[in-house]
Amino acid sequence: xxxxxxxxxxxxxxxxxxxxxxxxxxxxxxxxxxxxxxxxxxxxxxxxxxxxxxxxxxxxxxxxxxxxxxxxxxxxxxxxxxxxxxxxxxxxxxxxxxxxxxxxxxxxxxxxxxxxxxxxxxxxxxxxxxxxxxxxxxxxxxxxxxxxxxxxxxxxxxxxxxxxxxxxxxxxxxxxxxxxxxxxxxxxxxxxxxxxxxxxxxxxxxxxxxxxxxxxxxxxxxxxxxxxxxxxxxxxxxxxxxxxxxxxxxxxxxxxxxxxxxxxxxxxxxxxxxxxxxxxxxxxxxxxxxxxxxxxxxxxxxxxxxxxxxxxxxxxxxxxxxxxxxxxxxxxxxxxxxxxxxxxxxxxxxxxxxxxxxxxxxxxxxxxxxxxxxxxxxxxxxxxxxxxxxxxxxxxxxxxxxxxxxxxxxxxxxxxxxxxxxxxxxxxxxxxxxxxxxxxxxxxxxxxxxxxxxxxxxxxxxxxxxxxxxxxx
Length: 473
Known about the structure:
Blueprint: H1 3-20, E1 29-38, E2 65-73, E3 78-86, E4 103-107, H2 114-130, E5 139-143, H3 154-159, E6 162-166, H4 172-175, H5 177-180, H6 182-197, H7 208-219, H8 222-231, H9 260-267, H10 279-291, E7 295-297, E8 301-303, E9 322-326, E10 333-339, E11 345-351, E12 353-354, E13 359-360, H11 365-368, H12 393-436, E14 445-450, E15 467-472
Parallel strand pairs: 1-5, 3-4, 5-6
Antiparallel strand pairs: 1-2, 2-3, 7-8, 9-10, 10-11, 12-13, 14-15
Helix pairs in contact: 6-7
C-alpha cells in the first residue's frame, strides 16, 4: 500500500467533508460494501481425548455463496441490508424469517451487479427520506472501486444531495470501515450460527435468515462499526491511525542477498556429466556461470578473480570449474567452454566487452538467462475516472461519455447480430424450398413471395425485403 496515495486520499476526504460541513457530523458519513455468506460450515478445530479419533462433520459439496450488501454510518446505525441469492427469480420461501425492510433479490452468480446496485441506491434514498435524515445537510457515501459501484448511481445520488467518494484500489483492507470493524465479527458469528443450526449440512435458502439474523446481531454492532471508522482514521479524522507497518513491503522482499562466501560454496558444488546433459544440469551450469564470471588475460589464459563487482555482475572464486575463453577480433560474441572435474565440456556463447589493451568478457545472470517479457500487443488501456469523487462535474462528464460509448457499442453489436441472423435464416429458407422441390417435374412455374419472419416476430423488426424465389408445382 502506497503511503503517499493514502495520505492524498485522506486529504481529499477531509477537504470534501469540510466543504460540505459534515466532518464532525458522523450521522451523515456512511460506508457500503458487500460480504459473502457460505451455505456450508467450514471445518474447525476439534478438542478430544488423546489417542481416540475425533470428528468434525461438514458438507462435502463446494456450496454456494450469497451476498449481503450492508450500509452503515459512523454512529453505528445500519440501513436494512440487501440479500442476493443465486437464481433467476426470487423464491417464495426465501424471505422466511427476514426482518422488517430487508430486501431479497437474485442474480445468476449471486454477486452484485449494476442493476442491483442501482436499485439499492433508490432504496437507500427512500430510507433516508422515510427516516427524516434529509435535513438539508449533504451526505457522504464511501464505496470501494468495484465495477458495479462506479458510474451507476452517481447522477441519481447527486440529485438527492449525496456525495460519493471512491476508495483507492488495493487499500480497502485499511481504508474501508466495514472491512476493519463489522465484517470480521460478522463472519465469526456466521460460523457459530452455522454450527448451531446447520450442524454440518448445507443451509437451504428458506432457512437463510435463521443464521443471518444471529450473525448480524453478533457482528454488526455499534461498537464494531464505530471502531471500524475510528481505525480507518475517518471519524474522528486522524491520518496517523493507520500503523506504519501497513505501508512496508512484503517480508519476501527483505531477504538478505547471498554473500560472497555463499556464492563460493554454491560454485564448489559439482555438476555430474555423463555425456548427456539434462535440462536441470544446464540450468545449474548457467547459474554457476552467472555467479562465477570469468575474466580472460592475454594469451588465452583464464583466471578467476574475487571482487565486489557492480551492477548485475556477481564475481566469485571458482573451485572446480576451469574455463577457457576464445575471443576473435572483430566479433561481438565469444565461445566460452566450461569443463568440470570429469573432463566434460559445455559450450556457451556470451557477449564480449572489449577493454583497452586487453580483451575481456564478463558474464552476468541477465545475459545468460534473460528475464521473460510479456507481449502486450492487442491490449487497450482502460480509462480511469478523473477523480475519486464520483459526483464531481468532471467525473459525471466522464460517466456520460462512457455511457454514450457503451450504448453505441451495444447498438453496433445488436445490428451485427441481426444481420448474421438474417443471413442464416435466408440460407435455411432457401435450403428448405430446394428440398421440397427436389425431384419434381416443372409442370407449372409460379412465383412465391415468402415473408422473412419465420420466427413469429413482425417483419419490420428485421427491416429486410421479402425473399422472392421460383418453385415448381
